[in-house]
Specification:
Elements lengths: L2 E6 L7 H16 L3 E5 L7 H10 L4 E6 L6 H18 L2 E4 L7 H14 L5 E6 L5 H18 L3 E3 L10 H8 L4 E6 L5 H9 L13 H10 L13
Parallel strand pairs: 1-2, 1-3, 3-4, 5-6, 5-7
Helix pairs in contact: 1-8, 2-3, 4-5
Length: 235
């Protein structure tokens, strides 16, 4: 069967890589396929390096699942460029899958986390990395609304960066309280997450990590569907 490559943004955080690798292993086990983690920046291997590892192990084809929640610059520019470079540099066939996105499956995972970690919280703050793409930022707010419906607790979205009504440290200070729960929309640990953890007075959830394994596996399976044709797929 085709191997799996997860493609994260990458982070300078010393424990981020381990979190991505844990998720990748979990998704690989669920699918029963070889799985390798790659990163767009900051960490190694990059996508070309991960593809070379698979070629050396005898694989000729792999599905690439971007570990990205928004369809913004990284998804529309960086991922296609990385795919082109890896294909040219290794000769392996790479099938581009859709990213994690912000659909119903992500809302379910987030709501389950919130209900498990803070069943009595008065409010949940959904904390994504953020984006300067207004359309993508709006979709994250809509995701928060769907989490609210499932968890039965009010949700306010406060991105670490980018655009929105409440953003960054000032936004966090405006909503933080002891009975408010912080729900990160992060795959793995990160410097932006550490920063808000240090100033947060209430309860917090950990990054989503291996809880996303079934979603990664679903993106892998969907990439084999005849109707699948992401905009960054091979022409």
């Amino acid at each position: 069967m085709d191997a799996l490559i997860t493609l994260s943004h990458g982070s300078r955080h010393p424990r981020a890589r381990a979190g991505v690798e844990e998720l990748t292993r979990a998704a690989g086990r669920e699918l029963g396929v070889a799985a390798v983690a790659a990163h767009l920046e900051f960490d190694t291997p990059d996508l070309t390096g991960a593809a070379r590892q698979l070629v050396a192990a005898g694989h000729s084809r792999a599905v690439v699942v971007p570990l990205l929640f928004t369809r913004a610059f990284h998804a529309t520019v960086d991922v296609p460029a990385a795919l082109d470079a890896a294909r040219a540099g290794t000769g392996i066939e790479l099938i581009a899958a859709e990213g994690l996105g912000q659909g119903e499956d992500i809302a379910e995972v987030l709501a389950a986390r919130a209900l498990h970690d803070a069943p009595r919280a008065a409010r949940i703050v959904l904390y994504p990395v953020g984006t300067s793409n207004e359309k993508a930022a709006k979709k994250t707010v809509e995701l928060g609304c769907r989490v609210e419906q499932r968890a039965g607790t009010p949700v306010t979205t406060v991105p670490a960066t980018g655009c929105g009504e409440l953003v960054g440290s000032a936004g966090i200070e405006a909503v933080a309280s002891e009975n408010t729960h912080l729900l990160p929309l992060f795959v793995a640990e990160g410097l932006l997450l550490d920063r808000v953890f240090r100033m947060w007075p209430g309860t917090t959830s950990a990054p989503l990590g291996a809880d996303l394994a079934s979603i990664v596996a679903a993106r892998y399976r969907a990439a084999h569907s005849p109707s699948h044709a992401p905009s960054h797929a091979k022409a």
